[in-house]
Amino acid sequence: MIRRTLTSGLLAAVTVLALAPTADAAPAVPASHPAASALAPQSPPALLPAPARVRYTPHVNRSMTHRRSTPVLGRVTTHRFPLNVRSGPGYAHRVIGVRHAGRLIAVQCRTYGSWVRGDRQWYRLAHVRGHLRGYVSARYVRVRRTVPWC
C-alpha cells in the first residue's frame, strides 16, 4: 500500500511538472505577428535596494536557567544523622561535607543519580556564603516549590 501511494504520488508530480508551462518556453506566435512583441520576455525590473537586515536576538528567559534562578529552600529530614553532601549525584562520589538534621539548605536544581530508597533524584546545592556546592539525595530533603532541572 505504501509503494502504491508513493508511486501514484510520484506519477502525479511528474504529470504536473510536465503539463505546467515553463518560463523558458518560446511563445507560439511567429515573430512577424504584431502580438509577438507583447509576448516577448521582458527585461527584469530594476532591483530595489535590500532593506537593512535586522539582527534577531532570541529572547532567553533567564529565570528558567539554573544558574540565574533563585535557590529553593529545603529542609534536611534525616533523623539524628547528618546528611552527606557529595561531589556528584550518587554514592560513587566522595563526601565533601555534611548538613545537619532540620537545617535549611539552598537547592539550585535537580538531576538524576544513584537510587536512594526508591528515589533517583538528587539536588544540587547553591553556593551560599562560603558553603561548598555539592549534591544531596532528594529523599532526605523536603522542598515547598518545584525545583528546576539542571
Automatic annotation (TrEMBL):
Keyword Translocase among UniProt keywords: no
SH3b domain location: 83-141
Signal peptide: 1-25
A family per Pfam: SH3_3
Keywords, ordered alphabetically: Signal
Record bears the keyword Signal: yes
Protein name: SH3 domain-containing protein
Organism: Streptomyces anandii
